């Protein structure tokens, strides 16, 4: 997931990599060499965003994007659409499949059409209102 495929060296803009001291702390973000932040609004920073190695400038947890405005909930219909007719950016710290429920928050325009970021993913199996399943045949005895 975090393999570098580009020819350019990817780095986070707020992290100084040429430090002469050794790694001060083992925990990334606290003296380590990974920038992450809490976005507030009652959303926790995912563990993958804190300990991961991905570089994403549009991620609300590791990038320079702030969440403001609307907070919406929807269902993941494909890899590109997160809410009915609302395209949203999804950070590499989330694992999303079709049918998962997501919570998205409004941010500054990230591209021509994308103005939302995924903040939380709720797997499809854990929600109470999942798909109907065959339970068996009951006779009136």
Automatic annotation (TrEMBL):
<dbReference type="InterPro" id="IPR000266">
    <property type="entry name" value="Ribosomal_uS17"/>
</dbReference>
<protein>
    <submittedName>
        <fullName>40S ribosomal S11</fullName>
    </submittedName>
</protein>
<comment type="similarity">
    <text>Belongs to the universal ribosomal protein uS17 family.</text>
</comment>
<keyword id="KW-0687">Ribonucleoprotein</keyword>
<dbReference type="GO" id="GO:0022627">
    <property type="term" value="C:cytosolic small ribosomal subunit"/>
</dbReference>
<feature type="domain" description="Small ribosomal subunit protein uS17 N-terminal">
    <location>
        <begin position="4"/>
        <end position="72"/>
    </location>
</feature>
<dbReference type="GO" id="GO:0003735">
    <property type="term" value="F:structural constituent of ribosome"/>
</dbReference>
<dbReference type="Pfam" id="PF16205">
    <property type="entry name" value="Ribosomal_S17_N"/>
</dbReference>
<dbReference type="InterPro" id="IPR019979">
    <property type="entry name" value="Ribosomal_uS17_CS"/>
</dbReference>
<keyword id="KW-0689">Ribosomal protein</keyword>
<dbReference type="InterPro" id="IPR012340">
    <property type="entry name" value="NA-bd_OB-fold"/>
</dbReference>
<dbReference type="GO" id="GO:0006412">
    <property type="term" value="P:translation"/>
</dbReference>
<dbReference type="InterPro" id="IPR032440">
    <property type="entry name" value="Ribosomal_uS17_N"/>
</dbReference>
